[in-house]
């Protein structure tokens, strides 16, 4: 099932006590999916103000990417932060990117790692791939190819089990650190991959 549809279903389940809000979120999502961002924003904005994490994430993404609005990184960070602090995995991943790249905030690799890790622990394949890159490049952490390959493996596995669009995008990003590792390091990374997956990505 498409990841966006799963997110919508999850958000709607959380809003069963307010059918009108759920309907507005669905209307916003439908407009967003077909690229009618201006219409989507009209549905998302009031829901975001009311504290709906999915609407906050979508609104933050729209400001970050200039979808239907003038790009505004500070507003993007505002809405992404609100959603991320409610545990929204995709918002945590996107907020991590903002801190990594210094968009709307001072560049802060430690803060980026924090949000990538929180999202990765929820199974977000993009956050897992970004954690891999942070370890591979030594951004905010000592360079560690073993952990970089572990997160790369986990990300690839999750992407393969996800929708085809996510799988394709992550495959295109693939730049394996295995080429820089000796066989024993690769073997260790494989063991850690299995252990991390068995622990549901916690404490990795």
What oligomeric state best describes the polypeptide chains here?
Answer: single chain
Number of domains: 2
Beta fraction: under 5%
Work out the number of β strands: 0
CATH homologous superfamily designation of the largest domain: Tetratricopeptide repeat domain
The residue-averaged pLDDT reads 88
> Which fold does the CATH topology of the largest domain refer to?
Serine Threonine Protein Phosphatase 5, Tetratricopeptide repeat
User: Briefly, what CATH class of the largest domain?
Assistant: Mainly Alpha
Secondary structural class: mainly alpha
Outline type: elongated
Helix content: over 70%
* Second rung of CATH, namely the architecture of the largest domain: Alpha Horseshoe
Number of helices: 11
Spell the H/E element sequence.
Answer: HHHHHHHHHHH
Radius of gyration: 18 Å
Low-confidence stretches: 1-16
Distance between the termini: 27 Å
Largest sheet: none
Question: Can you describe what's shown?
Answer:
There is one protein chain. The two termini are 27 Å apart. The chain is 71% helix and 0% strand. The chain has helices spanning 3-13, 19-33, 37-49, 53-65, 73-84, 89-101, 109-120, 125-137, 145-160, 164-173, 183-198. Residues 1-16 have low confidence and may be disordered. By secondary structure, it is mainly alpha-helical. The chain is elongated. It has two domains: 1-107, Alpha Horseshoe (Serine Threonine Protein Phosphatase 5, Tetratricopeptide repeat); 125-204, no CATH class. The chain has eleven helices and no strands.
